[in-house]
Amino acid sequence: MAQVTINGQGYGLRFDLAAMEAVEAEFGGLKEMxxxxxxxxxxxxxxxxxxxxxxxxxRGFEGAPEDVTVAALRHAPLWVLGELGEAITExxxxxxxxxxxxxxxxxxxxxxxxxxxxxxKNG
Length: 123
Prior knowledge:
By secondary structure, this protein is an alpha+beta fold. The chain is 55% helix and 13% strand. The chain has helices spanning 17-27, 30-38, 43-62, 79-96, 113-122, and strands at residues 2-6, 9-13, 97-98, 107-110.
């Protein structure tokens, strides 16, 4: 799990289906969010909004109240933004990894399961 510490408080970040739905509601889609995330203008606001989405997704996964707000970042030092951007990226990468069943080695490569299924059927 990707984690970040802000003002002495640790936050887990999780990118899952709930987070993806929140990204679509907040940004219009993953493509739009990534365009804003990678752009210079508006990047800080995008990082803040993604932090809230991913932190609340982790809290929801744990059964805790999804009550993280941007207020958690209000007095954070500026260097936290860099760490937060890296943690957001790591959470998204973790979500794309496929774990094996039955004690095999983990596959850390990114996979598009839908595309792989289509290719196997059209094979």
